[in-house]
Amino acid sequence: MSRAKQQLTVFRALGEADGPLSARELWSRLGGAGVGLATVYRALRRGVEDGTLESVELLGGGVRYEPKDREHHHHFLCSICNHAFDLFGCVEGLESLVPDGFQMTGHEVVLRGTCDECANAA
Ligand SMILES: [Zn+2]
Ligand SMILES: [Zn+2]
User: Fold this and answer.
1) Which domains does the chain have, with CATH numbers?
2) What number of H helices and E strands is found in the chain?
3) What distance in angstroms lies between residue 65's CA and the mean position of ligand 2's atoms?
4) Tens-digit pLDDT profile for residues 16-43
5) Ligand 2 center to 43 CA (angstroms)
């Protein structure tokens, strides 16, 4: 598989995922696509460098990747399968938490819990 094709395969898989993926998660989802783990790491690094991918770190769960052009969203981290799911929409009223004199320039919201699959398996 050519380098450009590998890059595209990685980019597509992230685009179709229901949340940001770690290199290992992405690799296992590509299982059978003829892409090795080292290649996945390289493609992710290149994607971050060329600005098509963004690395995301959530509550110490390791680095995950998602397409950079994704609209404003947050994440739900399953404490059982450790998968992060995209949550679209936002929280109103965060500014009311900011102390007087502080200027908020951004925010991150991570919800933690159990995803539907893990809840059903329990
Ligand atoms: Zn889960
Ligand atoms: Zn938000």
Assistant:
1) 3-67 (1.10.10.10), 73-121 (3.30.1490.190)
2) 4, 5
3) 18
4) 999 999 999 999 998 866 788 999 999 9
5) 28
